[in-house]
Design a protein that fits this description.
The complex is a heterodimer of chains A (469) and B (314).
Chain A (H helix, E strand, L loop, with lengths): L1 H13 L6 H13 L5 H12 L6 H11 L8 H5 L18 H7 L5 H14 L2 H16 L9 H12 L1 H8 L6 H34 L1 H8 L14 H28 L7 H8 L20 E7 L5 H13 L6 E7 L3 E3 L1 H6 L3 H11 L11 H12 L7 E6 L11 H10 L2 E6 L13 H4 L5 E4 L3 H11 L1
Parallel strand pairs in A: 1-2, 1-4, 4-5, 5-6
Antiparallel strand pairs in A: 2-3
Helix pairs in contact in A: 1-4, 2-3, 4-12, 7-8, 8-9, 8-11, 9-11, 10-11, 11-12, 13-15, 15-17, 15-21, 18-19
Chain B lengths: L5 H8 L13 H10 L6 H13 L3 E4 L6 H12 L2 E6 L6 H4 L1 E3 L1 H10 L6 H11 L5 E3 L1 H7 L4 E6 L6 H13 L1 E4 L3 E4 L5 E6 L7 H5 L2 E4 L5 H11 L5 H16 L8 H13 L7 H11 L3 H12 L7
The chains are: A alpha/beta (469), B alpha/beta (314).
């Protein structure tokens, strides 16, 4: 068990969850205090001792399913016996659940029968039937081959494609009349279909564990933590997670910055005041007086590329910067594709930055010609219209991948902005390795920036914005 | 390797005569006894509470507002017949409010009463005297540690104190003791259960998290929420409770500023019962949605999404 726990913790750390030595020991103690045959209890115990952040729980559950898969979960003895590999699946006799025995028998089921079985299992909320149906569906449609080094998503996709879930959802949601009742039935159906999906995913994962062993599989199904998801390549589910993570993130960042500002209470020594105080001690300056600190709140100008490829990154950054706008003396935002438009007004009216960000796409006038990013043109227009507003107090933040679609670059415009501004920073959401490949011309602009920062994840973004304020 | 049971080990460190018996026999025991207090737990809540008791460790409960974090501590106190001692955290909380304070007025009185007799050698006498337990004002943490009857300590909204103040809690959380320079160390006379709650407005320090078991309490699923409604709202039919729970689930999937909490769900259920409804029609929902949602924009969005109406609704 200790070995297995060690491997499991190594996997959690590899996935980015920080697990300390003490927590490892706590987990080991918890294992001694509980009944190891009770899988949900073991899961809760490990979660409580090893994971200290609610956002990390999904990653933990995935890893747990791989390392302590249901099939290999037979009894405490097996776990306590360090020689035995947890992946060597026990024979059907002591595996829990009815699914194993019925797997072979029901393979004669026709596609219609299977669909009917799933429908009825979901309608009646019958967990056993659902499990059997999911197992059957995977056997039938996933086309799993032993030893093939593909991740579970491929099999999941193949299975789901054949199951016609939309039809299933429609059948489940027939029901009462009335707007509310219809909507409720629809949501209920969706929730049940999600249950089926989760069940199938779990089934596939278990079969993969049997085939390839926990550690190999853990690596391929490892999901990044929300703050480590690559914003540019996030899928829909990850995107939802990011949106979800952004609000608490900006709130925490604002609290931290406000606190930092409050703590730096002292300014430089106030000589006049100190000398006056020193009169009472015979001219010896015992009691130093300080000037009140001068709040150093930079003025921020954000210039963001919102063309398709980097749109989500721009959205997140605008959201974050505006959410902590109290830390800056002023925030102005501009968005461009091949035309440029100021969107500060959208944020001024909204009490939630998310609303404003949502309106940008509809309301900003950013397309002048063909709708492909043109950094050179955008900078030139910005320079013509707003250059006078860029002063020694302004920090210019440029967001974009510098993929200029082979238009004119006009780096000299940026050079002039750099000359006027306090600082120019460029945040590039592309991985460093892709810079300057293809139509990316970041190296033409880089000399005119104080820093060019790779900013692919929320973690990097938060770190950068935190430094800025 | 034979290692001591965590409770035994802690009892030894605290120099207790005997190991205080554990409060709960199993997670199922936690579940039934909390249910008897009207608190419906789920798998995770029951398991972590059981573990906290068994390992003698504090629990850090985190989750959105109104999901029953504080209620959990209260229910555990009731279920174990313990006294609940609550420390409400806020910005600016310091040790004189959390741990202890010397009652200096009383100390002054003592000095004045003894004036005249205090010659040189008697001063040390007096000094010893005024830093005695008699002049100590116990604040919640010390109160919980020095209690001789069973207590449950609840440190509520710990994310509201400053990072530096968190350090005050560490000694209590890991050693179950409080050091008072003038008096020495006060050790716990029993092993109290400790719950900390946090709404996650800021990242808590690693040191604090490391000393606690972590429990995330999210919104309950439909079945559990229905059971909670049935349990807490007298006279409600289970069909209506189910429908309410489903409406609330659908609301929580929308992108709202403030998703309805369990407490608000219960308010809504009570309202519907008062109105004598057996099921929720579109009209009722539109008319009472403001009990669940506290922002006008949220209400507008919910009306549009769930009831399929646009701006026509006033």
């Amino acid at each position: 068990m200790l070995n297995l726990l060690g491997d499991f913790i190594a996997e959690l750390r590899a996935a980015g969850i920080p697990v300390s030595m003490t927590e490892h020991m706590d987990a080991a103690r918890a294992m001694q205090a509980i009944d190891l045959g009770d899988r949900p209890l073991v899961r809760a115990a490990l979660a409580a001792t090893l994971v200290k952040d609610g956002d990390h729980l999904p990653v933990f559950y995935t890893a747990f399913d791989v390392f302590f898969s249901m099939r290999s979960w037979s009894s405490a003895e097996e776990l306590l016996n360090p020689q035995e590999d947890e992946t060597s699946a026990p024979t059907g006799a002591n595996a829990p659940g009815p699914r194993r025995g019925s797997g072979g028998a029901s393979s004669t089921m026709s596609a219609e029968e299977l669909a009917e079985l799933l429908f009825r299992a979901l309608r009646d909320g019958d967990a056993n039937a659902l499990r059997r149906g999911a197992g059957e569906a995977v056997t039938r449609y996933a086309g799993m081959e032993p030893g093939r080094p593909v991740g579970g998503t491929y099999y999941l996709y193949r299975t789901l494609r054949n199951l016609d879930l939309e039809n299933l959802e429609r059948r489940l949601s027939v029901g009462e009349a009335g707007e509310l009742a219809e909507r409720l039935a629809r949501d209920e159906a969706r929730a049940r279909v999600e249950m089926l999906k989760a069940e199938i995913e779990r089934e596939i994962r278990e079969r993969l564990v049997e085939d390839r062993g926990s550690q190999a599989l853990a690596k391929s199904v490892r999901k990044p933590l929300p703050e480590d998801v690559d914003v540019m390549h996030a899928n829909r589910e990850e995107m939802a997670q990011l949106e979800h993570a952004l609000r608490p993130l900006s709130r925490k960042l604002a609290t931290r910055l406000a606190r930092r500002r409050r703590r730096r209470r002292r300014g430089p020594v106030d000589l006049r005041h100190t000398v006056r105080r020193s009169l009472s001690t015979g001219g010896v300056p015992i009691d130093l007086r300080f000037k009140p600190p001068r709040p150093n709140k930079p003025e921020i100008i954000v210039i963001a590329d919102i063309s398709g490829s980097v749109a989500s990154f721009a959205r997140f950054t605008l959201h974050l910067v505006h959410a902590i706008s109290s830390q800056f003396s002023k925030v102005r935002s501009f968005v461009f594709v091949d035309g440029i438009d100021e969107v500060t007004r959208l944020f001024e009216g909204a009490d939630d930055p998310a609303d404003a960000v949502a309106r940008i796409n509809a309301e900003a006038d950013v397309i002048a010609f063909d709708g492909h990013s043109d950094y050179g043109r955008a900078f030139s227009v910005f320079h013509d219209r707003y250059a006078k507003d860029v002063t020694r107090r302004s920090t210019v933040l440029i967001l974009g991948d510098a993929r200029n679609n082979y238009h004119q670059a006009h780096p000299e415009v940026l050079a002039d902005l750099h000359h006027r501004a306090r600082a120019v920073f460029w945040l590039n959401p592309e991985p460093l390795g892709y810079w300057n490949s293809g139509d990316s011309i970041i190296n033409q602009y880089a000399p005119h920036c104080d820093r060019v920062v790779e900013c692919r994840t929320l973690r990097q973004l938060e770190a950068f914005v935190g430094e800025l304020a | 390797m034979t290692s001591l049971d965590p409770r035994q080990e802690l009892a030894q460190r605290l120099e207790l005569d005997q190991v205080p018996p554990a409060n709960f026999a199993s997670p199922d025991d936690v579940r039934t006894r909390l249910a008897a207090q009207g608190y419906l737990s789920d798998e995770a809540i029951a398991s972590v509470t059981f573990l906290a008791d068994r390992l003698a460790k504090p629990v850090l409960v985190e989750g959105p507002a109104g999901t029953g974090k504080t209620a959990l501590a209260r229910a555990v106190a009731d279920a174990t017949g313990a006294r609940l001692i609550r420390l409400q955290c806020y910005e600016g909380l310091d040790e004189s409010k959390a741990l202890y304070e010397w009652n200096y007025r009383k100390q002054l009185l003592r000095i004045q009463a003894g004036r005249g007799e205090a010659t040189g050698e008697e001063w040390s006498h007096l000094e010893e005297d005024i830093f005695a337990e008699e002049f100590l004002l116990r604040r919640p943490l010390l109160e919980a540690i020095s209690a001789t009857d069973p207590v449950v300590l609840l440190i509520d909204e710990v994310d509201r104190v400053e990072l530096e103040t968190e350090a005050l809690l560490l000694e209590v959380l890991s050693e179950y003791q409080v050091s008072i320079p003038e008096l020495g160390t006060v050790r716990a006379h029993q092993i109290p259960m400790v719950f900390l709650t946090s709404n996650n407005t800021r990242e808590l320090s690693e040191a604090l998290k490391r000393r606690c078991l972590y429990l995330y309490v999210g919104y309950p699923d439909v079945a559990r929420e229905r059971d909670i409604i049935v349990e807490r709202v007298p006279g409600i039919s289970s069909a209506l409770a189910e429908q309410i729970a489903r409406v609330v689930r659908s609301l929580r999937t929308l992108d709202l500023k403030k998703a309805p909490s369990v407490a608000e769900t219960l308010d809504w259920a009570r309202t519907l019962v008062l109105l004598g409804r057996e099921e929720i029609g579109d009209e009722d929902a539109a008319a009472t949605l403001h009990i669940l949602l506290k922002y006008q924009t949220d209400i507008d969005r919910a009306t549009k999404e769930l009831l399929g109406r646009g701006k026509t609704v006033a």
